[in-house]
Amino acid sequence: MIPKRVFWLTVGYSAGLGSSWYTTRKVRAAARRYTPEGLTERVSDRVETVKAAAVEGRAAMRRREMELRAGLKP
Hints:
Layout: H1 2-33, H2 36-72
């Protein structure tokens, strides 16, 4: 009877310790994301992505416009 109790006590202790460690890691990572430095990094990454998309869109627009103009010439 006693070995079973020791086994389940050990399993419960390990599960509690593991879940505490995992939760602590996740909470610290989330807190880091919302610091001024973390927000600045996330916003600057998104701004760069939007800028790249705008540049690519303008280039595609110009190519398409040149194709359309070439089709209109007699």
